[in-house]
Amino acid sequence: MNFIAWIIVACEIGFWVVIAAGLITRYIFNRKQLGLFFLALTPVIDLLLLIVTANDLYNGATATQVHAIAAIYLGVSIAYGKSMIRWADERFLYYIKKQGPKPVRKHGLAYAKHSMKGSLQHVLAFIIGGAFLFLMIYLIDDPSKTEALSGMLKVWALVLGIDFAISVSYFIWQRPQKTG
């Protein structure tokens, strides 16, 4: 694996470490402000990835699929970050602290709406990550060095379309309520 790939892995691990640190600090040690500080570090991790990726490309590296994945990671992290933290917060409270209501497994129309909300977040992630990809393509200004970026953008657009089709299908064929 190349250096940028390792940075992406480190950023993903770092993302979940600061969330865990924030939740543990907030709920186990009852230090709400310090917990909030840890949770607020998640954008710093994204900024670190952006700086390292931009520096690698600035120093003449040919853009690879890993550079494209870095842009996708940034878009996803920005678009889904708040909801991922909320998801972790709810489960931490219920499963670790034994407080609050049990997270509900959605079904029927509620699940279809939840899935569509996720698809709309995916659109936002695509816009953000796509903007990073277009910016890299524009700044490098050499199609032979940015072929992987434009190729990944096309694949991501296909994945986005499939995601949207699946979400729409839940309005037609609704997810049944699980019994037992």
Summary?
This protein is mainly α.
Task: Report on this structure.
The chain has 180 residues and is an all-alpha fold. It has six helices and no strands. α4 packs antiparallel against α5. The N and C termini lie far apart (45 Å). The model has no long low-confidence stretch (mean pLDDT 91).
What features would you highlight for this structure?
mainly alpha, 0% strand, flat
Strand content: under 5%
- Structural category is mainly alpha
Order of helices and strands: HHHHHH
> What integer value in Å does the Rg equal?
19 Å
Mean pLDDT across all amino acids: 91
Inertia-based shape: flat
Number of strands: 0
Question: What is the makeup of the main sheet?
Answer: none
Number of helices: 6
First-to-last CA distance: 45 Å
- Roughly how much helix do the residues carry, as a percent range? over 70%
Give the low-pLDDT segments.
none
Give the SSE layout.
Blueprint: H1 3-28, H2 32-40, H3 42-58, H4 65-96, H5 108-140, H6 143-172
